[in-house]
Amino acid sequence: xxDLVQHLAHVMxxxxxxxxxxxxxxKIHEGRHLAGSPAELAYAxxxxxxxxxxxxxxxxxxDGSHWHTGxxxxxxxxxxxxxxxxxxxxxxxxxxxxxxxxxxxxTLGPLSAEQIEINARGAAAVRAALAERGTP
Length: 136
What we know:
Elements: H1 3-15, H2 21-31, H3 38-49, H4 94-100, H5 113-133
C-alpha cells in the first residue's frame, strides 16, 4: 500500500476512537479510486472519521456523506439516467438488449476481427499505463 494510504489510515484511526490502523488502511486502499485526487481522498477520510454514526471503517469504500463534502467535488459524480430508458442509469442495461436482442454478452455472437484488434490495442494501452505508474 502507498505511503499516502498508510498516513491517512493513521489520521482516520486517530480521529475516530476504536478504529484500528490496519482496518482503516484496507478500506482506504479499497476506496481510493473514488476520489479524484489525493486531497479529495484526505477530505473523505477526515469526513468519515468524524461521523458518529459509523463504528468501523468498513463502509468507507462505499457511497456515503463522506464523499459529498463539497471538498470532494469529483468524488462519486451523480448518476445520469438513460434517455431511452428513464428507469435505468447509464450505462443502461436495456440498450444492448434492444440493439442486439440479447440479454447476455455470451449470446451476442463472435467479435469481428476489427473489434478484436480494437480490444487488443485498448488492453495494451491500459497495461502500458499501469506499468508506467508502477502498478503490477
